[in-house]
Amino acid sequence: MTAPHTLTVENLELGYGSRTVVEDFDLDIPSGMITCIVGANACGKSTLLRSMSRLLAPRGGHVLLDGKDVHRLPAKKLARTLGLLPQSPIAPEGIVVADLVGRGRHPHQRVLSRWSRADDAAVADALAATNTTELAERAVDELSGGQRQRVWIAMALAQQTDVLLLDEPTTFLDVSHQVEVLDLLTDLNRDRGTTIVMVLHDLNLAARYADYLVAIADGRLYAAGDPSEVLTSDTVAAVFGLDSRVIDDPVSGKPLVLPVGRHHVTV
C-alpha cells in the first residue's frame, strides 16, 4: 500500500481570458479512495482537473498536495507523486506503443541514470493490465480510438504515482472496455492504495465506482460525499436539468439514475 497523500482545493478560481469557469471552489479529496467528478458539459470539471495537476494556473486560491502548492513544486518531484491522463492526449508522430508507455517512467529517471529492470517491469505490468501487450510494437497513430485510450491509461499506470487524475478515461471505449478500465482502476486503488480522481460522463458508472462523488454546477461545488447521499433526483435536476428517478442498482446497490423523457409516463 502507498503512503497517504492529501490533495486539497482552497477557494479556487479558474478561467480562460475574461471568462471565469470555476470560482469559490473548496474540496478535500479523500486519500486512498476513488473520487468521481460529474456535472453537465462546460461546468468546469476538466478545468478543475487541469488545475489540480498544475496545467492551469489559478486566478485565485490554491491546490495543495501534502500542504504544498502544486504550482510551486518542481515538476519532476510532483510527477513522481501525481499523474494525469488528460482528455484527448496527443502522441508524438510515429511513436510505438512500448515507447509511449515507457514515457511514464521519465519522472523516475535521474541525471545519467540508465533504464532499469524496474522500468521494464513497470511497463510490462502496465501493458498487461490494460490488455495492450500485443500492441507494444505497433505505431500509436495506427490504433483504433479504444486501443489508443487503453495505451494512454497504460502510460499513466507505468508512472506508478500515488495519486492519479484521469479526465474521461472511458472515452472512445465500448461498454465492455469501459467496465474493464474502471475495474482496473479499482484494482489499482484497492491493491496499492492509489488515490484516484476521475471525471466521468456516465452518471451511473460514476455512482457505481466512486467511493466519493463530487457534483459540479456552473463552476461551483454543488454536492460532495457518498454517492448514495449525493446522487438524488433533486441533484440530477439541479446539476443536469434532467427529470429522473433514482433507484438502487440491483448489481452494486449504488444509486441508479433513470432519466424520464417527455414521451414517458411516470408512475
TrEMBL record:
It is a peripheral membrane protein. Gene3D superfamilies: P-loop containing nucleotide triphosphate hydrolases. Keywords: ATP-binding, Cell membrane, Ion transport, Iron, Iron transport, Membrane, Nucleotide-binding, Transport. Residues 7-243 form the ABC transporter domain. It is found in: Cell membrane. Pfam families: ABC_tran. SMART domains: AAA. One of its GO terms (molecular function) is ATP binding. InterPro entries: AAA+_ATPase (IPR003593), ABC_transporter-like_ATP-bd (IPR003439), ABC_transporter-like_CS (IPR017871), P-loop_NTPase (IPR027417), Siderophore_ABC-ATPase (IPR051535). PANTHER family: IRON(3+)-HYDROXAMATE IMPORT ATP-BINDING PROTEIN FHUC. This is ABC transporter ATP-binding protein.
